[in-house]
Each structure stands twice: as structure tokens, then as C-alpha cells.
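Q: what does this look like with 6-phosphogluconic acid bound?
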Amino acid sequence: MKNVIFVMGVSGCGKSTIGKLLAQDLNMAFFDGDDFHPEANITKMSSGQSLNDDDRQGWLETLNNLAKTQLINTSCVIVCSALKQKYRDILSSDIQNETKWVHLAGSFDQIFERVNSRADHFMPSELLKSQFDILEEPKNAIEIDISLTPEQIIKKIKQELMNTSEFGLFGLGVMGKSLCRNLANNGFKISMFNRHVDGVEEDVAKNFKAQYSELDQAKAFDDIASFVNSLQQPRKIMLMVNAGKTIDYVIEDLLPHLSENDIIIDGGNSNYKKTKERNEYLKTKGIHFIGTGVSGGEEGALKGPSIMPSGDKDAYENVARFLETISAKDKNGLPCCTYVGPEGSGQFIKMVHNGVEYVEMQLLAEVSTILEALGQNPDVISKTLEGWKASASSYLLEITATIFQKKEGDDWLVKKILDKAGNKGTGNWTTIASAELGVPSTLISSALFSRYISFYKEERIELSKNFDKLDPSELDVTTTEILEAYQFARIINHYQGFKLIAEASNKFSWDLNLSEIARIWTNGCIIRSTLMEELVEVFKTTSNILTDSHLITLINHYKPSSKKVVSQCVLNEITIPALGEAVQFFNGITTKYASANIIQAQRDYFGAHTYQRLDDASGKSYHTNWI
Ligand code: 6PG
């Protein structure tokens, strides 16, 4: 990569000497900024007057143009005092990514003595003092102590120029750590940061680095400034911290150390609306923001997650090679990572991913309960689920089959787990987003509320005493029928999830590509499945999967089993909210004439809300005096 290296510092710090030596050593062109002053500046300076900012403007622009012209073909070294940040902004305008700063730093006394010991030189102390007064220390320069010998200085600069990381990972929780190892395993030079909390989080980054040989070259920090300074510009910093307020605190902590065009990537399960706000806020600071969904859990993060980045498209181009390299690959070897769309669209689709995940999990929990009611013990349930892989393969099916095999002592572990399901909030957000957008994601809310019901353990125990529960010995279903009911509900689940994405895309003008989204969910993520692979093709021709001829055939084939399983479960008092809702929703969405006419009449009766008529296509509103 071509660079322009600006060597800066107050008069007398040795810029020209070091600049020339450096250019020579690196075999680059050398320019002394002072040689580019316009006539007027030279006249002014030789009459003993100092230059003001207006005088400097044109000169700094000339140097900026010089740098740009050089960069077309080659790298170069330019020396210039560049004492104020605004001067440096002009010098690096449009070439921030290619600009490196070297600051030759020394104390007033040191420089005063050094300059005035030169035979042909004299600098009054006021002049030097004014230089120190003006100097605004650069935040992202390679800082060089001028008491070193020139040889040492050149060596140090060269070392520092080489010795920067390409990518920073902020937050070393389970996911952050796995991503670090993934990046390092892929040969990227990374810096890793974890905060220091006395007695709680101490030397986390350092200890983590020591634990894994692939992290030998990685740099470990618990100091934000050093972490940020260790990164090549524009810096790419991925946050893997708890979603919510923490993200904002971290952003505020980072901001003072960042430079224009640096990129922050939020890889947590953040709310998509917050991502949009953060995007806008950081734009005002000249910082790019990418909100990205990351799915795959600890193992996925380590071996290849599915990554769903969104936000600033240009900034994405700068981080694409990192994210695409560490992501899982689809069956054609393409990365399961693609630029999703603007604003928080990446986090929106991750949220929906999690909603679909909740349903897939709930369906597996329900079918397992039915299988148990048929008398299957966990080992047999596991075998049954294994057998379903041929026609309904998915990651969640696979892990559930494995879960049922796990024993602790003589009993199955799954039987010892308290039946209260936790959640971290994404299913909740999906349900809220569905309600806000007016999209009936009924399976997602059903799966979410099932978790909530499970949480009322004490009340469930209490109420179970008041009502007799049937023994499901009369249950009349086959495992094939259960499999088909499961398949039916999964298609409805995916219909609803993608419907929610499609509606959000329209509402927010995101222009999302459903086929690409399905594609990046075919590997690495929690909801990867053969059905998802099929949807990649389906979405190439339609955004509504219930219009696809193959899926229509499947639904028609599964429907009888679905109805039978659901009704048998109802008769036998087996709780199957998601399987049941799939049938109900399907009936609703395929009903030509719904019962909503009665709702409309009721609304008009008590609230004069009016209604429209089937026999008047104009859409006119009618009100009736019902009594
Ligand atoms: C993933 C998962 C991951 C995580 C969720 C689940 O795609 O890797 O979805 O994001 O498991 O936090 O959240 P709940 O705690 O709400 O089940």
C-alpha cells in the first residue's frame, strides 16, 4: 500500500534531517514543506512576521496536493511542522487512509539547547515558546523521543510503521475471544482489548493471548488509548460487548482516541433502531458505523459464523475482507457474510433470525414432548430425530438429537434441567417489531410467550392441582405424522420470518435481497438447514414462499398430518402452541373470507368506526345505526 509519511514537530526538532534519512532508508521521495511556500509567505517570513492561518491555508493545500499526486504512483515523506490539528486535517484531506504521522517530540529545554548549539542557527526563546503554545499533540502519530540517535529514530519509525494491527477486537467475552482466534487463525494482525476491573477483570487480554499459540502475534491491551494507537488507519474496531447502554459507553470511551474515517463495528445483538441512531450520531463525528448480526454461538464464531453487516456501504468495503474471510462458507464456497443494507438492517435480520430460531427450538421441544407421550425415552427420541435428518436436516435438529443422548449418572441430563426457558430479549424485540410493522409473526410471539409461560413455574405447579390432566395414552399419531406436522410448521415459520423482513425492507426502503439473506443463513448460523438452502433458490423468483410450486406441494402433503397431530394433542392435553399456531395461521392466511366482517360491525356498533362494503369497490366508509 502507498503511503505519505508526514514528519512533524516544532521548529528545531530535527524534522528535515530525520525526514531525509527516513526517505532514503525507505527509498521514497522526500519533500521539505518549507520549499513550497508561496512568494507572499516567504516575503512575510523574511520580514520577521509570523504566518497566520490564512497564510498557511493555501500552502497546506499545496502540500496536500503534492501528497495526492505522489500517491498516484508512489509513497513519499513530507516534513512540515503541522502543529495544529486543523493543519493536519488539510494536509491529509481525502488521503486519511494513506497518511501516517511521525511526531518528533522533545521538551522546550531540549530543543532550545539543541537549536542554539548549532553554529549557524539562533532561535529566540519566545519564538520556540510560541511554537509549543500552538502545538496540539497529535493523537495518532508515531511518537518519537528526539533524544534518541538518528539511527535509533529511523529504526523505531520503521518498526512502528510495520508494527500495527489491521483489526481490533474490543471485548473478550466468549464471542469476542472466539472471533479473535478466528481472525488470528486466518493470518490477520489483530489487537485485542478487554477492560480492567479490579479483582474482577484483570489482564484478561494478556492472559487470553498467553493461552493460545495462534495469538502469538496478537497484541493485548487493557488501556484504550494504546489499543487504538496500535491499529492501522482507518482503524477497524469490532465491539463484542453486551448490547444496550454498554455500547454507547464504549463508543464514548473510544471517540477521543479515534480519527476521521475510523470504523466501529457493533457485532452484538443490538436493537436495530439503536444502530440507526448510533450510525447517525457517529456520522457527525466523522466515524463510520457498521451494525452487524453475528450468528453461530461460540463454535461458529471460532470456526466461521454467519455475519450480517449493515450501515455504511463504503466503510463495509474496508472491512469486507476481514468479515468475509472469517465467516462460514456456503456450499459453493462463498462467504456467509454479505452487505445486508443500510441503517440497522443487519441487526434487524439478525433479530428476525433469532425469532425464527426461537420457533425452530420451540417446535423441536414440542415434537419431543409428543414423542415422549408416545412412550419414547430420550435415547429413542434421539434416534427418531436422527432419522428425520434425511428429510428435515438442520443444525438445531442435530443438536437436539445429541442433547437427548446425554446422560448424567443413570439418568438423562435433559430430565434434570429446570423447565424455565431464559431469553436475552431478541425474541421480544422481534415480536415488538412485528406488532409495530403490522406483520403477523404469530409463531415467533407464540414461541416467545411459551418461554414466558415456562417462567411461571410456581404458578404452573399451583394451578395444576386445580385441574385434572389427561394421561395421553390415547394419543393416536405416528412418528411420520409428527415429522410432517413439524415440517409444515417450519415452512410457516420461515414464511413468517421472511415476510417480516420483506415488510421492513419496504417500509424502511432497505431494498433487502431475501435470497442473499437465506444464502448467508445456510451455514455458520443457528438456523442453518436444508430448508434454508431451498429458500435461496425460491427467493430468486418470489418474495412469498407460499407461492412456490414445490412448497405448495409440500404444504398440501403435510397438511393432513399437521391437522391430525394438532387435534390429537389438543384432545390429549399436550401443549403444542407453535405447532397449533402454524395450522391456525395457515388457515387464516389462506381463507378468502375471514371473520373480520364481524369485528368491523362490532367496531361500528359501539364506536361508529365505520366499515367498507364488499358490494362497493370505491372503498367508501359506511356507518349503520345498529338498533
Ligand atoms: C446466534 C444466537 C445467539 C444467542 C442468542 C439467543 O445466532 O448465535 O441467536 O445470538 O444464542 O443470544 O438468545 P436467547 O438467550 O434470547 O435465547
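The pocket of 6-phosphogluconic acid is lined by residues 269, 295-297, 354, 357, 422-424, 426-427, 525-526 (CB under 6 Å). The domain at 4-162 is CATH 3.40.50.300 (Rossmann fold).
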